[in-house]
Amino acid sequence: MNREFTSREQRLPAQTRQKPKLGDRVRSIADQLKQETELQIKATARILGAAAQIAENHDQLIDEVFDMVEEDIEQNQAKPPIYTTNSLKQQFKTLRDAKTHFGLKAHSWVELVNKLNSSSPPSRVSGDPFNSISERLNAIESELRMMRVEISQILSLLKQLVREQE
Length: 166
Fold this sequence. Notes:
The structure is a single chain. By secondary structure, the chain is an all-alpha fold. Helices cover 81% and strands 0% of the residues. It contains six helices and no strands. Helix 2 runs antiparallel to helix 6.
Protein backbone atom coordinates (compact mmCIF):
# COMPACT_ATOMS: atom_id res chain seq x y z
CA MET A 1 0.00 0.00 0.00
CA ASN A 2 2.86 2.31 0.59
CA ARG A 3 3.73 2.11 -3.03
CA GLU A 4 0.20 2.97 -4.13
CA PHE A 5 0.10 5.94 -1.79
CA THR A 6 3.35 7.38 -3.08
CA SER A 7 2.29 6.86 -6.67
CA ARG A 8 -0.93 8.79 -5.95
CA GLU A 9 1.09 11.62 -4.43
CA GLN A 10 3.22 11.72 -7.51
CA ARG A 11 0.14 11.82 -9.72
CA LEU A 12 -1.55 14.70 -7.88
CA PRO A 13 1.12 17.33 -8.55
CA ALA A 14 1.20 16.30 -12.20
CA GLN A 15 -2.54 16.78 -12.47
CA THR A 16 -2.32 20.11 -10.65
CA ARG A 17 0.35 21.33 -13.05
CA GLN A 18 -1.79 20.49 -16.04
CA LYS A 19 -4.90 22.30 -14.78
CA PRO A 20 -4.12 25.68 -13.26
CA LYS A 21 -6.43 26.67 -10.48
CA LEU A 22 -8.97 29.39 -11.01
CA GLY A 23 -7.18 31.68 -8.56
CA ASP A 24 -3.93 31.35 -10.51
CA ARG A 25 -5.69 32.21 -13.76
CA VAL A 26 -7.32 35.27 -12.17
CA ARG A 27 -3.93 36.41 -10.79
CA SER A 28 -2.36 35.93 -14.20
CA ILE A 29 -5.08 37.95 -15.92
CA ALA A 30 -4.84 40.66 -13.24
CA ASP A 31 -1.07 40.86 -13.78
CA GLN A 32 -1.55 41.18 -17.52
CA LEU A 33 -4.14 43.92 -17.04
CA LYS A 34 -1.84 45.74 -14.64
CA GLN A 35 1.02 45.59 -17.15
CA GLU A 36 -1.21 46.77 -19.98
CA THR A 37 -2.56 49.62 -17.84
CA GLU A 38 0.97 50.73 -16.96
CA LEU A 39 1.89 50.62 -20.63
CA GLN A 40 -1.17 52.67 -21.55
CA ILE A 41 -0.36 55.23 -18.85
CA LYS A 42 3.19 55.58 -20.14
CA ALA A 43 1.97 55.91 -23.73
CA THR A 44 -0.64 58.49 -22.71
CA ALA A 45 1.98 60.45 -20.79
CA ARG A 46 4.21 60.47 -23.86
CA ILE A 47 1.31 61.59 -26.02
CA LEU A 48 0.49 64.38 -23.56
CA GLY A 49 4.11 65.48 -23.53
CA ALA A 50 4.27 65.47 -27.31
CA ALA A 51 0.99 67.39 -27.57
CA ALA A 52 2.24 70.00 -25.11
CA GLN A 53 5.49 70.34 -27.04
CA ILE A 54 3.58 70.70 -30.32
CA ALA A 55 1.39 73.39 -28.77
CA GLU A 56 4.44 75.28 -27.49
CA ASN A 57 6.21 75.03 -30.85
CA HIS A 58 3.05 76.11 -32.63
CA ASP A 59 2.65 79.15 -30.40
CA GLN A 60 6.29 80.07 -30.85
CA LEU A 61 6.05 79.82 -34.64
CA ILE A 62 2.89 81.90 -34.73
CA ASP A 63 4.54 84.56 -32.57
CA GLU A 64 7.56 84.62 -34.88
CA VAL A 65 5.38 84.90 -38.00
CA PHE A 66 3.33 87.62 -36.39
CA ASP A 67 6.50 89.57 -35.50
CA MET A 68 7.85 89.18 -39.03
CA VAL A 69 4.60 90.38 -40.59
CA GLU A 70 4.45 93.33 -38.21
CA GLU A 71 8.02 94.28 -39.14
CA ASP A 72 7.16 94.04 -42.85
CA ILE A 73 4.09 96.19 -42.37
CA GLU A 74 6.09 98.79 -40.45
CA GLN A 75 8.78 98.85 -43.14
CA ASN A 76 6.19 99.19 -45.91
CA GLN A 77 4.43 101.99 -44.07
CA ALA A 78 7.70 103.79 -43.39
CA LYS A 79 8.83 103.70 -47.02
CA PRO A 80 6.06 104.38 -49.48
CA PRO A 81 6.71 102.55 -52.73
CA ILE A 82 7.74 104.51 -55.79
CA TYR A 83 5.61 103.56 -58.75
CA THR A 84 6.62 103.69 -62.38
CA THR A 85 4.52 103.36 -65.49
CA ASN A 86 6.31 100.17 -66.47
CA SER A 87 5.92 98.57 -63.01
CA LEU A 88 2.20 99.32 -63.00
CA LYS A 89 1.77 97.99 -66.54
CA GLN A 90 3.49 94.76 -65.51
CA GLN A 91 1.39 94.45 -62.35
CA PHE A 92 -1.99 95.28 -63.94
CA LYS A 93 -3.38 94.25 -67.30
CA THR A 94 -5.34 97.44 -67.88
CA LEU A 95 -5.42 101.00 -66.63
CA ARG A 96 -8.93 100.32 -65.37
CA ASP A 97 -7.65 97.43 -63.17
CA ALA A 98 -4.94 99.67 -61.71
CA LYS A 99 -7.35 102.53 -61.03
CA THR A 100 -9.79 100.15 -59.37
CA HIS A 101 -7.06 98.62 -57.23
CA PHE A 102 -5.82 101.97 -55.93
CA GLY A 103 -9.24 103.62 -55.85
CA LEU A 104 -8.05 106.58 -57.91
CA LYS A 105 -9.30 108.36 -60.97
CA ALA A 106 -6.81 108.91 -63.78
CA HIS A 107 -6.95 109.27 -67.56
CA SER A 108 -3.51 107.76 -68.27
CA TRP A 109 -0.81 105.62 -66.77
CA VAL A 110 1.39 108.68 -66.23
CA GLU A 111 -1.36 110.51 -64.38
CA LEU A 112 -1.93 107.47 -62.16
CA VAL A 113 1.81 107.18 -61.41
CA ASN A 114 1.96 110.89 -60.55
CA LYS A 115 -1.00 110.57 -58.16
CA LEU A 116 0.48 107.49 -56.50
CA ASN A 117 3.90 109.11 -56.05
CA SER A 118 2.57 112.50 -54.93
CA SER A 119 3.51 113.73 -51.46
CA SER A 120 -0.01 113.44 -50.09
CA PRO A 121 -0.80 109.72 -49.96
CA PRO A 122 -4.09 108.74 -51.58
CA SER A 123 -6.88 107.52 -49.41
CA ARG A 124 -6.71 103.77 -49.32
CA VAL A 125 -9.68 101.61 -50.17
CA SER A 126 -10.70 98.36 -48.55
CA GLY A 127 -8.54 96.45 -51.05
CA ASP A 128 -5.49 97.95 -49.35
CA PRO A 129 -2.87 95.27 -48.76
CA PHE A 130 -2.20 96.60 -45.24
CA ASN A 131 -5.84 96.21 -44.29
CA SER A 132 -6.08 92.75 -45.80
CA ILE A 133 -2.92 91.64 -43.98
CA SER A 134 -4.18 92.90 -40.64
CA GLU A 135 -7.57 91.30 -41.30
CA ARG A 136 -5.88 88.00 -42.12
CA LEU A 137 -3.73 88.27 -39.00
CA ASN A 138 -6.81 88.95 -36.89
CA ALA A 139 -8.52 85.92 -38.42
CA ILE A 140 -5.43 83.77 -37.78
CA GLU A 141 -5.23 85.05 -34.22
CA SER A 142 -8.87 84.19 -33.50
CA GLU A 143 -8.42 80.76 -35.06
CA LEU A 144 -5.37 80.20 -32.86
CA ARG A 145 -7.35 81.14 -29.78
CA MET A 146 -9.96 78.54 -30.72
CA MET A 147 -7.24 75.95 -31.32
CA ARG A 148 -5.69 76.69 -27.93
CA VAL A 149 -9.04 76.14 -26.25
CA GLU A 150 -9.50 72.86 -28.12
CA ILE A 151 -5.96 71.72 -27.27
CA SER A 152 -6.57 72.56 -23.61
CA GLN A 153 -9.77 70.52 -23.67
CA ILE A 154 -7.96 67.58 -25.27
CA LEU A 155 -5.17 67.75 -22.70
CA SER A 156 -7.63 67.88 -19.80
CA LEU A 157 -9.51 64.88 -21.20
CA LEU A 158 -6.28 62.92 -21.59
CA LYS A 159 -5.24 63.82 -18.04
CA GLN A 160 -8.63 62.68 -16.79
CA LEU A 161 -8.21 59.38 -18.63
CA VAL A 162 -4.80 58.88 -17.05
CA ARG A 163 -6.22 59.56 -13.57
CA GLU A 164 -9.07 57.12 -14.17
CA GLN A 165 -6.63 54.41 -15.19
CA GLU A 166 -4.58 54.90 -12.04
